[in-house]
Amino acid sequence: MRAMLVSGFVLAVALLAAAAPAVTLRGIISSAQDGVPMGRAFILVHDPSASEPEYVARNWELNTTDGTFSIVLSPGCYDLFVSESWFHPLTERICLPDGDDTNVKIKLKPGHPFRYKQR
Questions:
Q1: Do the domain assignments include residue 13?
Q2: I need a surface site. Which of 32, 50, 103, 119 has the fewest CB within 10 A?
Q3: Which residues pair with 69 in a beta bridge?
């Protein structure tokens, strides 16, 4: 009887964890200088509370040519990293509330962060 109760409890916890709500982080990436949407930006989402080191690698994408992106995540706070060639990278903490999709507008500043001196 005790084994059945423990098994039932474990099953209930597993079902609750599997039914965690999902929210969508949507956004558009554009140039801060002229507002033109930027395609091919790299977006990485990191969960600072996750204990799995590979979690980061599963939550990245390249946005579409019109500058938009969409990533499905669990509610919570994340570190968002965005970069594009010849623009300064951006890092931002973003919190996704339970049950609400979130829309963000990201503006990257022109100028490559690494300047090499020609010889």
A1: no
A2: 119
A3: 27
